[in-house]
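Lab meeting notes turned into a lecture example. A postdoc, R.K., suggested we walk through two folding results consecutively so the class can see how the record format repeats. The first protein's sequence and structure tokens come next.
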Amino acid sequence: MKDLDNISNVYFLGIGGIGMSALARYFISVGKQVRGYDKTPTVLTRKLEDEGIAIHFEDDVTLLDKNAELIIYTPALPSGHSEYNYYKENNYSILKRSDVLGLITKSSYNICVAGTHGKTTTSAMIGHIFRHSGLGCTAFLGGIATNYNTNFWSSQNENNRKKICVVEADEYDRSFLKLFPDVAVITAMDADHLDIYGTAEKLEEAFIEFGGQVKTGGLLILKHGLLRSSKFSSANKMTYSMNNNAAGAFAENIRLQSGSYVFDAVINQDCIKDVELNMGGMHNIENVMSAIAVSKFVGITGEKIKAAVTAFRGVKRRFEYIIKRENVVMIDDYAHHPEELRALITGAKELFPEMQCTVIFQPHLFSRTKDFADGFAEVLSLSDNIILLPIYPAREKPMEGVNSELIMGKMKNRNVQVLDKVNLLNEIKTHKRGLLITAGAGDIDMLVEPLSQILNGTQI
């Protein structure tokens, strides 16, 4: 394949994916012509079109770009995709997103954030601190940073001798093994993607391999208490925690003030007093402690870190407030794993203890639902009322006996029902007060606007 600097036309198969769209924005930023295909129009694909990228939504070889010099595809692409097969049969240069990200970051100073959950918020926090402080970075994120309304930016400081990249390192399909970090963060290694790895142990081994790819003189930052942490071979390691002072970085003197968390950040016995985090969920204190540890390692001052954290407005669909009034609160979140849901529900109930909590959850993938049905049932039972949408299949075909009723049947809390989207909207018309949470990684985000209109009384 030609050097990336010497190509003009790039074509994306699955351009609407959150990671793929960040790459598409990168190529636009360096002056390449970008076109692409995706299965369905979304808010994100509309934004890409507004930014000048031509996208079509039919798998049709007459619509693809025959002049493309590089084809980038998502591993979630279904087998038998005719456009992919056309490019393959005609010997085009075809690469996965992870391969291209590896090429882009080959000669840069890389901050790579991995983990089965927490990596999007953490990588967005790091990228924001770098940008806000004036250090600058190129950021490839797995979510839309609210401060900048994008999942990609390049704001390099001309005084930096080397380009800095902040990259969300995805464990799906072992993609993160294409990256070689100068600083790596691992936030969690809970069992997930068992359709790829087979067992939790194989997943953990991939994370251990990723941790071993930290460059000489770099730093590996692990969540304190992480399973098998002794197996990571990096010579330079530190741990972080929300409030465990056995870690190298932790928060102390945590208090809630006017809906924000205020705490003292301790990093290797150095203390930044009265850090203010304007995000819901105690777990985000833990996330920001890892971001602060990275920022201190690269030389950003405590004063600049503190100002940047105060200014951080979060990531869309990560504990995102849609409505926040005295008698009604609506939160939307990407949570699609039992432990993510646990952090979401417990964090929301902690902030709004007097409100009845209703969770609308859309399971993502038949395989994940099958693997974690017990975990989903246990965690969802923490809420007062639960509405389950049918499973969002994504790349998978149905599995016999695996559906949302499987979760419902295992739940201790019997205030649960399975509804399709139309009946869901009708049901929510009876929920005018309280705490409403929408969660899932499928297309549940398309329901956020109509649900908020119902709660605001503005539905047409």
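The second example is placed directly after the first for contrast:
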Amino acid sequence: MCEYLSDIKPRYEINEGLNVVERWNGVNDFIRYGRQGVFASNNHEDQEISTFSLGLLQNCLMLIKTLPVEQVIKEENFLEKLNVEDLRALSPLFYEHINPYGVFEIDVNRPSFLKREVL
């Protein structure tokens, strides 16, 4: 505690970690927008399935977001241009462009970005 109070570096590090956790919680709230994230059942098994489903959705969201970010970094040769702060700020936890209400437009004639070569 004394180190935390006397040195600014651990405070910055802790604050950065808290920001990541808050962003993760924001993604949770976004995914579970219905009923404000409250479990719909008191049944332990239903709650467990809901929790595992939430984790699966988070991981899918991060994968779907990580691949195009990696592709842009590779295609634009950004890796050499990014400093430590830029790299620390990279995160797949963005969702502002996603419609959570189930409307998905898919062009089956367009190749999937998942088939692209990644880093």
